[in-house]
DNA sequence: TATGCGATATTCT
DNA sequence: GAATATCGCATAG
């Protein structure tokens, strides 16, 4: 049943060249990770933009060994560790040499739900991909995926879904201390798979 | 429901 | 030494 899901690989030319537009564009798209014998996929329901010159963004102070993937052409994966414990997945969003990206904060699991649940222990099913750290754990994304081209014929890629996307809401970003006032978080409204407090899901 | 804390890689002061 | 784009568990109300 899952194998008949209609997924169409996104071409780089389809991705907006602007970070904020890309963040909004990715809502309702699908993240796919092809493993040896299984497919993991999830519908993206929450993102945050970290545009050029954003003091809350990792690229703000220039290129380092950790954040170099943010400076790749749009559509590449930037994976990093935060708080020493959680992996976070971003999509680079500008032209080569410019550091900016879109953080993927939540997915609604589609293919491979049993596998995700298995690797997640007793976590509630509804929380599998709810939150940036949980998203990477469910999708089995870690530092090995850092720098991958999500628009190439690789194991990790972006797809368009036949499913209709609901109304898109906009809010402040979550968990920041700098540049907190800008409305750079996008999410599908009233979707319970979106992370954060309830007031930030409406 | 809300708040606090430990784990701990990388960068900055 | 301190801060950070987090999570999961503990405890309290």
What does this structure look like?
The chain has one domain (12-200): 3-methyladenine DNA Glycosylase, Chain A (Roll). Helices cover 10% and strands 28% of the residues. The protein is built from 3 helices and 9 strands. The chain has helices at 19-25, 113-118, 132-138; strands spanning 7-9, 30-34, 39-50, 77-82, 86-92, 101-109, 156-161, 168-171, 185-188. Strands 1, 2, 3, 4, 5, 6, 7, 8 and 9 form a 9-stranded antiparallel beta sheet that branches. The protein is globular.
In short:
This protein has 202 residues and is mainly beta. The protein has a single domain, classed as Methylpurine-DNA glycosylase (MPG) (3-methyladenine DNA Glycosylase, Chain A), CATH 3.10.300. The chain has helices spanning 19-25, 113-118, 132-138; strands at residues 7-9, 30-34, 39-50, 77-82, 86-92, 101-109, 156-161, 168-171, 185-188.
Q: How do the helices and strands line up, and which of them pair or pack?
A:
Elements: E1 7-9, H1 19-25, E2 30-34, E3 39-50, E4 77-82, E5 86-92, E6 101-109, H2 113-118, H3 132-138, E7 156-161, E8 168-171, E9 185-188
Antiparallel strand pairs: 1-7, 2-3, 2-7, 3-6, 3-9, 4-5, 5-6, 8-9
This protein binds a DNA duplex (13 and 13 nucleotides) through strand 4, strand 5 and helix 3.
């Amino acid at each position: 049943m899952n194998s008949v899901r209609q997924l169409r690989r996104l071409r780089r030319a389809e991705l907006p060249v602007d970070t904020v537009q890309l963040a909004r564009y990715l809502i309702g798209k699908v993240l796919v990770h092809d493993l040896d014998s299984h497919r993991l996929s999830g519908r993206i329901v929450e993102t945050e933009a970290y545009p050029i010159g954003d003091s809350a963004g990792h690229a703000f102070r220039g290129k380092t060994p950790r954040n170099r993937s943010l400076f790749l052409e749009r559509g590449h994966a930037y994976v990093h560790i935060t708080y020493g414990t959680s992996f976070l997945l971003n999509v680079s969003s500008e032209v080569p040499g410019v550091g900016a990206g879109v953080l993927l904060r939540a997915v609604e699991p589609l293919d491979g739900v049993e596998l995700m649940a298995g690797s997640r222990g007793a976590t509630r099913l509804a929380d599998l991909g709810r939150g940036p750290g949980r998203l990477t754990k469910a999708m089995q994304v870690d530092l090995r995926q850092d720098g991958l081209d999500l628009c190439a014929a690789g194991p990790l890629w972006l797809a368009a879904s036949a499913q209709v996307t609901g109304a898109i809401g906009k809010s402040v970003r979550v968990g920041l201390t700098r540049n907190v006032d800008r409305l750079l978080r996008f999410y599908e409204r009233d979707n319970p798979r979106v992370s954060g407090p309830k007031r930030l899901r409406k």
